[in-house]
Amino acid sequence: MADKGEGVYIPHDHIRENSHVSSIEQYQKMYKESVENPEAFWGKIAQDFYWKSQCSGKFWEYNYDVRQGEIFIKWMAGATTNVCYNCLDHNIEKGLGDSVAFYWEGNYPGDASQITYSELLKEVCKCANVLINKGVKKGDRVAIYMPMIVELVVAMLACARIGAVHSIVFGGFSADSLAGRILDSKSSVLITADGVYRGEKLLNLKDISDTAIQECLDAGFTVNSCIVVRHLGEKREPGAGGDMEHHPPKRPCIKLQTNWHNDRDCWWHDLMADASDQFEPVWLDAEDPLFMLYTSGSTGKPKGVLHTQAGYMLYAATTTKYVFDYKPGEIYWCTADIGWITGHSYITYGPMLNGATSVIFEGMPLWPDAGRMWEIVDKYKVSKFYTAPTAIRTLMKFGEDYVKKHSRKSLKVLGTVGEPINPEAWLWYYNVIGDKRCSIVDTYWQTETGGHVLTPLPGATPAKPGSATLPFFGQVPAVVNENGEELDGPCEGYLVLKQPWPGQMRTVYGDHQRFERTYFQKFPGYYCTGDGCTRDKDGYYWITGRTDDMMNVSGHLLSTAEVESALIEHSAVAEAAVVSYPHSIKGECVYCFVTLKEGKLFNDALVGELKGKVRQKIGPIAVPEYIQNAPGLPKTRSGKIMRRVLRKIARNQKDLGDVSTMADSSVVEVLFQNRPKDV
Ligand code: WT7
After folding, report:
1. Can you give the pTM of this predicted structure?
2. By the 8 A CB rule, do 495 and 475 touch?
3. 3-state secondary structure of 223
4. What ipTM does the predicted assembly reach?
5. Is residue 521 within 8 Å of 481, Cβ to Cβ?
6. Is 468 a pocket residue for ligand 1 (Cβ < 6 Å)?
7. How many angstroms separate the alpha carbon of residue 588 from the centre of ligand 1?
8. What is d(CA 436, CA 7) in angstroms, rounded to the nearest whole number?
9. Which of 237, 353, 363, 663 is 20 to 30 A from 312 (CA-CA)?
10. Which of 446, 454, 461, 559 most suits a substitution to test ligand 1, by most atoms within 8 Å of the C-beta?
């Protein structure tokens, strides 16, 4: 994109000329069809995929209005397909069998491997047989708690092949979080690994899994099988089965001291060695579930977001194709973890449905040094690159030298996701990483949306730093006020979506009422995103952040309630209130107010214990940055904690706004005085 002044960047000719959508007029034309005639638009796209049987009934059907009855969304119901078949077999039939599906780049430089589409199909079929032998059937949930290794993709696609619903839990979550997700989804099989190094830090995943499985047992639920990938363990003798002998010299080869439960635990490589590499896919209805993925909910209990087969497939594939302008032969790399929705849609499903060649990276951006990402870009000649604002801001801090050491000349499209990107970081991404040659795509979406909602197209959309620009095909955004009235022209309000799109979530697993309450009750007739936004005179959207009790830490949503309930578990805490606080790298961080029980002392040791409690209950991402002693909390006369006031106190802003409903305003002055010294 070229700087046209006034903060507008238009796509460079070299990107525009051979892109799928090469002008804003072409985008507008396609967009118009996508929202006016979704059946024609998505029907044409569906022809690129394999269907065992066609949809004979309604192509799409929905109710978005709680006043009219139950909320439902259906796309292509009655058609049958298999997403794994479309990711693998269908591409192989098109001649992509020998092309690389994934380059795997390990944490340790030099530790790398690759796998073609045909090889991956064999592994997936073996794993499908393994799961069937473990008693997994269509519709059963399988929990996956793994590092960023190829076996993770194998496991998820194997689930998809047999119609099991994968429930991937991010490898950075704690045993408690894992247990909660296994219990809620009733997953009787867990797939994990012995351990993983992230930088120099060892994560003993099997140990954490053992703790989680025990917690499930204590709660009355049995995990029947725990399948363990040997990722770090000792090198085995050649011929011992599996393909695990490539242990590179640099990966530390350690035997982790894990307890082994013979009746439950099995090594992945043992099971895979005995399994057939053929497996006929289970043909599934378009509206059968594909996977579930937990996301924080404002009441504190994570929600199992459920996605289904056909719609998700069409949407993940189409967004990948257009938003990254993916073309055959290009190398694509998304740095997210597969444990988040970004990894589901834009490492596994979207790229594979396009027959893409992608990089999977196990490590982290700063290790062994801040040039690692650009070293990988050069090594594989990555042209489409997707990361998060928090990573960009972190790298900015380390300066340009680490970037300039590497050529990066293969790069064409640079994507960002997870939170609003500040214009300074956008410009650094554009000027320094992209050498002013690349298109930046700021993609706004959610776990719930399955794929991009607002985003530029790299060859078509003039970009403005900090704006996610315009709706993707099929999306009909609107801005409403507190009363749910749609606003016209330039405005500020709540971002809602007016019409369903194929990749939309269908329900909260096991709690359809919560789905209706969370997304459809506040503004009947609309899907409520929970985000605030402004719309400018050109119709561009600028996300201003969450409007509910959610915090966005490094691009990951946390609810204030889940952190509060972790804090309250500490025996010294009587009451806790949590708000977000701005952070230069993470975007937002966690700021806590705690009221202690009589006679308890607030000191550094207690602060350490409270942080430990949050780490144990949720995981390292949720650990509070600041914890402040609060002899009292500002509350309304009806007893509700006024987080709005606490947010101001955290930020040391004295203009509290309307506090007429506050029961006892004397607490406020004390809280201002008690602010931690390091904020
Ligand atoms: C929330 C969704 C979607 C994958 C990662 C996060 C915020 C996400 C952007 C963006 C401004 C963004 C929103 C959204 N968000 N991308 N480009 N600009 N805000 O998934 O955990 O479901 O979080 O992240 O607040 O609602 P998630």
Report:
1. 0.95
2. no
3. coil
4. 0.99
5. no
6. yes
7. 13
8. 14
9. 363
10. 446
CA 126 to chain centre: 27
The dihedrals phi and psi of 533, each to the nearest 5 degrees, come to: -155, 165
| Ranges in the chain, pLDDT < 50 | 236-246
What is the rounded CA–CA span in Å between residue 551 and residue 624? 12
For the stretch 196-231, pLDDT in tens is: 999 999 999 999 999 999 999 999 999 999 999 999
The answer, yes or no, to whether any atom of ligand 1 lies below 6 A from the CB of 447, is: yes
**Pair of tokens at residue 295:** 């996301």
466 C-alpha vs ligand 1 centroid, how far in Å? Answer: 13
pLDDT in the model for residue 19: 98
Q: Which of 445, 447, 504 to mutate to test the pocket of ligand 1 (most atoms within 8 A of CB)?
A: 445
* Ligand 1 center from residue 342 Cα (angstroms): 10
Separation between Cα atoms, residue 54 and residue 43, nearest integer Å: 11
Q: What is the pLDDT of residue 250?
A: 65
The predicted structure's pLDDT at residue 234: 64
Across 91-118, b (16+ Cβ under 10 Å) vs e yields bbeeebbebbbbbbbbbbbebbebbbbb
| Burial (0-12, 13-18, 19+ Cβ within 10 Å), 183 | middle
CB of 529 within 6 A of ligand 1: the answer is yes
C-alpha to C-alpha distances, 210 to 207, 214, 230, 260, 559, nearest whole angstrom: 5, 6, 15, 9, 27
CA dihedral 46, 448, 484, 41 (to 10 degrees): -10
Give Cβ neighbours of residue 352 (< 8 Å, ≥ 6 apart): 87, 88, 91, 101, 358
> Is ligand 1 within 6 A of the CB of residue 546?
yes
> How many A from CA of 600 to the centre of ligand 1?
39
Phi/psi for 583 (5° steps) reads -140, 135
- The CB density around residue 310, as the number of other CB atoms within 10 Å, is 29
The pLDDT value recorded for residue 139 is 98
Whether 455 is in the pocket of ligand 1, judged by its Cβ within 6 Å, is no
Q: Which of 543, 546, 621 to mutate to test the pocket of ligand 1 (most atoms within 8 A of CB)?
A: 543
Q: Which one, of 231, 186, 197, 503, lies nearest residue 344 by Cα?
A: 503
